[in-house]
Amino acid sequence: MKTLILTTAALALSAGAALAESHAQTVRLGTEGAYPPYNFLNDAGEVDGFEREVGDELCARAELTCEWVTNDWDSIIPNLVSGNYDTILAGMSITDERDEVIDFTQNYYPPAASAYAAPSEDVDLTGGVVSAQATTIQAGHVADSGAALLEFATPDEAVAAVRNGEADAIFADKDFLVPIVEASGGELVFVGDDVPLGGGLGVGLRESDGALRDTLDAAIQSMKDDGSLNELIVKWFGEDAQTFE
Amino acid sequence: MFASCADPETLSGLSWLTCYLTTGKHIAFYWAFGTVLLLLAVTAPVALLFGFGGAVAARSRLAPLSWLGKGYIAVVRGVPDIAFFLFFVIALDQGIEWLRHKAKCPDWDQPIRQGNDFIVCAEAKMPLSTSAQWVHEVYGFWLAVFTFALVFGAFAANVLYGAMRAVPRPQIETAEAYGMNRAQVFRRVIVPQMWVYALPGLSNLWMVLIKASPLLFLLGVEDIVYWARELGSTKTPQFTAYPHGDWRMWYFLFLLVFYLGFTRISEIVLDRVMLRLTHGQATLGSHKRTGPIGMNKAGPP
């Protein structure tokens, strides 16, 4: 009964909120919040990072009211299609497999390199144990490479597995690994060549949300045209980062 | 939080720790303890209510009602908690939205399921996508409470069903001999006396409920497990003023101590309740009571 009363109260509240803000379209942006520099929670517990700035700018240009929501990587696509939020900005590479389930805008980050990091240079990348975050393109690549794949729910756990010797190396986006390798003081080094994977990062949307995709596509294009997207890329990923022409 | 925390790099030792432990993220972590306690405080009585309803229904002489009660007990007890949580919350959420959709948008002509997508009109969203994030969080919390209550209610129903049958037959016969009808016997004799038989089972359930609260994390509520994992993970200097290594072990150790302390306090309280309930009754549960002697002894000492 109590549940019922409070659900009713919640209902009444949300109805009131809806009346107050009925003009502006609200878009809920889903992200993981555990993948710096793309997205992470800062010390104040707010979503921060490259995608936070890109997302806020896209919303400003498209005149949308936006709200950030964090969700586990594992269930980030299921919760998008069931309508808990409207977009995914979570360092998600555009791939054919994902495109079958959801839609993507054009990329807001160019196709980037993935890299291996390990405690020493002489690890066996094709015959050893390699950790990666579950259901990422990197995990798919490791599975195809012949190495034993060790999957983790968060990228941080995949790094921790290398540190404690559970895995020989980690395979992840190079942009994610650079700050970690730098901060490790020589404990971790990059091994082997960089591997280009995926078609860049795009905003994930429900397939039925064509209008929102066109709006965001246009906003991304305008950010590419006036160079502001490149500025953000340089700000978060350094001078050497790949930018749009 | 404190003015001295403006530049954490200059701090060391205890002052660093003080600043570190009072970041916005840590405050959210502490609030999450409140969330868990609130969940337990609300779920326990609601589950008991569900359990009571289930037990009464299962005992009913009306066959359909009895099937309903027994079906509820059997189905929910038989499905693994995790499977139930993952299925039921999504199904409940979509069910509510579907009902609201039917009521609010009668002239919507597109299908609700388009491929993988579940689409209802904007007015039927629950909560509305225009509402603030905290409304979404409150809604998610109540979905979790309802799901927990439903699951633990089924177990409580089974416990109470058994407890009602454990009330000694002579008590009921005596009541009947005084001319009480079935409802009166139930209200005046069975319910007051069943608690002592139900308490061991219910206290067990309470312990399991405490231990099951990290399942909140599965339901997307940012509970203490979520924050412990997030706060404990390695932090590199570029993205935080308080870089540190992999501290998950310490955060989880803290959770371990919290849960252990909480269950211990529960045990002590439940023991007291047991003493109170067995007051004046000749049961094995009252053997260690220290109150007025003599009232509870059935035979010679």
Automatic annotation (TrEMBL), chain A:
<dbReference type="Pfam" id="PF00497">
    <property type="entry name" value="SBP_bac_3"/>
</dbReference>
<feature type="signal peptide">
    <location>
        <begin position="1"/>
        <end position="20"/>
    </location>
</feature>
<keyword id="KW-0732">Signal</keyword>
<protein>
    <submittedName>
        <fullName>His/Glu/Gln/Arg/opine family ABC transporter</fullName>
    </submittedName>
</protein>
<feature type="domain" description="Solute-binding protein family 3/N-terminal">
    <location>
        <begin position="26"/>
        <end position="240"/>
    </location>
</feature>
<dbReference type="InterPro" id="IPR001638">
    <property type="entry name" value="Solute-binding_3/MltF_N"/>
</dbReference>
TrEMBL record, chain B:
<dbReference type="InterPro" id="IPR035906">
    <property type="entry name" value="MetI-like_sf"/>
</dbReference>
<keyword id="KW-0812">Transmembrane</keyword>
<feature type="transmembrane region" description="Helical">
    <location>
        <begin position="189"/>
        <end position="209"/>
    </location>
</feature>
<dbReference type="InterPro" id="IPR000515">
    <property type="entry name" value="MetI-like"/>
</dbReference>
<feature type="domain" description="ABC transmembrane type-1">
    <location>
        <begin position="33"/>
        <end position="270"/>
    </location>
</feature>
<dbReference type="InterPro" id="IPR051613">
    <property type="entry name" value="ABC_transp_permease_HisMQ"/>
</dbReference>
<keyword id="KW-1133">Transmembrane helix</keyword>
<dbReference type="Pfam" id="PF00528">
    <property type="entry name" value="BPD_transp_1"/>
</dbReference>
<feature type="transmembrane region" description="Helical">
    <location>
        <begin position="71"/>
        <end position="92"/>
    </location>
</feature>
<protein>
    <submittedName>
        <fullName>ABC transporter, permease protein, HisMQ family</fullName>
    </submittedName>
</protein>
<feature type="transmembrane region" description="Helical">
    <location>
        <begin position="139"/>
        <end position="161"/>
    </location>
</feature>
<feature type="transmembrane region" description="Helical">
    <location>
        <begin position="28"/>
        <end position="50"/>
    </location>
</feature>
<keyword id="KW-0472">Membrane</keyword>
<keyword id="KW-0813">Transport</keyword>
<feature type="transmembrane region" description="Helical">
    <location>
        <begin position="249"/>
        <end position="270"/>
    </location>
</feature>
<dbReference type="GO" id="GO:0055085">
    <property type="term" value="P:transmembrane transport"/>
</dbReference>
<comment type="similarity">
    <text>Belongs to the binding-protein-dependent transport system permease family.</text>
</comment>
<dbReference type="GO" id="GO:0005886">
    <property type="term" value="C:plasma membrane"/>
</dbReference>
